[in-house]
Amino acid sequence: MIPRLAAILGSKTKAQEMLLLLQGVKGVVRQGFYNTELPRVDRFCRENGIHGVRSTFKVLLSEGELYSNKGFRVPLEDPRQGMYFIYFSNDEQKAYLASYYELMSNHRELGLLLGYPPCCVDFFCRNFSERNTNLGLLSTNPLTNLSKRDQDCVLLSHFPCSSECPESMRLARTYLDVIQKADRGRAEEMIKILQC
Ligand SMILES: [Zn+2]
Q1: What strand order describes the sheet that includes 83-89?
Q2: What does the pLDDT read at residue 71?
Q3: What secondary structure does DSSP assign to 6-61, as a single string?
Q4: How many domains does the chain fold into?
Q5: 163 C-alpha to center of ligand 1: Å?
Q6: Among 76, 80, 104, 190, which residue's beta carbon has the most beta carbons within 10 A?
Q7: How remote is the CA of residue 119 from the centroid of ligand 1, in Å?
Q8: What is the Cα 58 distance to its own chain's centre?
Q9: pLDDT at 62 > cutoff 80
């Protein structure tokens, strides 16, 4: 399941988020894609009854930065290679709403709509700034560990307010459970990577 989705979406982390959306565990998911990836992503949405709303701007950033909301926006006509955000949901209104909140830089409502815990949304809104774009804490907890993102291995898609944030740990356990049921091998691989 995960490898098949990863072939379409470009990474195991994106595949995992899509799995959580397909299973109804997440209501809205946001991911970044380059132009060349869009046709197969659009096709996947059509075939699976998912609404994918595309941002009305592009973001210039590297893959790692996407997570941190860093990067700057340019118009779609800009010739530079930028990423489009796509907001996926089974609910068309929610997908549009997410794109609207992002456009308005309403981090709070966007975070809540993406299902992030309120404590972590507060943490993000208090601490995120142009100068401080990476809020990933050093984690000793595999569930909330963000430090293996570069290895395409992470359970959460938000910055936890602490590595022991109960709500983040609960979400991470739920996600791991879904992954385990869909792809036991991947779940075991993730546990191994996230522990070190
Ligand atoms: Zn929290």
Answers
A1: 28-33, 83-89, 51-60, 72-74
A2: 72
A3: HHHHSSHHHHHHHHHHHTTS-SEEEEEE-GGGHHHHHHHHHHHT-EEEEEEEEEE-
A4: 1
A5: 9
A6: 190
A7: 4
A8: 17
A9: no
How do residues 166-189 score in pLDDT, each as one tens digit? 999 999 999 999 999 999 999 999
Alpha helices in the chain (DSSP H): 2-9, 12-22, 38-48, 63-66, 92-103, 107-113, 118-127, 166-182, 184-195
Contact 116, 168 (CB under 8 A): no
| pLDDT score recorded for residue 10 | 96
Cβ < 5 A residues, ion ligand 1: 117, 119-120, 161, 165
For residue 161, report the distance from its CA to the centre of ligand 1, in Å.
4
Task: Single out the residue of 184, 160, 155 nearest to residue 172, CA to CA.
Answer: 155
* Residue numbers of the domain that contains 147: 2-195
- Interval 108-122: pLDDT, tens: 999 999 999 999 999
How far is CA 89 from each of CA 17, 82, 152, rounded to the nearest angstrom? Answer: 11, 23, 22
Tens-digit pLDDT profile for residues 113-163: 999 999 999 999 998 776 666 666 667 799 999 999 989 999 999 999 999
> Tokens 């401080």 appear where?
132
